[in-house]
Amino acid sequence: MARISTITSIYCWLIIAALAGGILLLTGCQNGKIPDEDSYAAQLYLKRCGQCHQPYNPNLMTATMWAAQVELMQARMKQAGLLPLTSAERKTILDYLTSNAGKQ
Ligand code: HEC
Fold it and tell me: Among positive and negative, which fits the CA dihedral 83, 85, 87, 88?
């Protein structure tokens, strides 16, 4: 009996630890600070790309992927009737994303 309850309590702790880790990971993703958060480019990114979903951290995609993603998102903005990115905004955002992009 005593042995079983020790094992059970170890499992309990493992589950609690796993849950806590998962929550930390999740909140880390959602509220993770983006690079140079106070810069004009980062603020523009947060403002324009955080309207429909949480802004993704630039390091989640490579530069090539960002170029394609921004194209796709411009189409989403159009569909949603939002103001499309001006070419200057697009360039600022894409420069910001690519210079902080993940390596692979
Ligand atoms: C009009 C709302 C809207 C705006 C504004 C918007 N997105 Fe999205 N985004 C979406 C939707 C909807 C999805 C879900 C996937 C899809 O439908 O393409 C998405 C998904 C994503 C994804 C995840 C793609 C994947 O494969 O998991 C990334 C990254 C992304 N958006 C980046 C951006 C960036 C960068 C901007 C700014 C240029 C932006 N989004 C602005 C609506 C938007």
Answer: positive
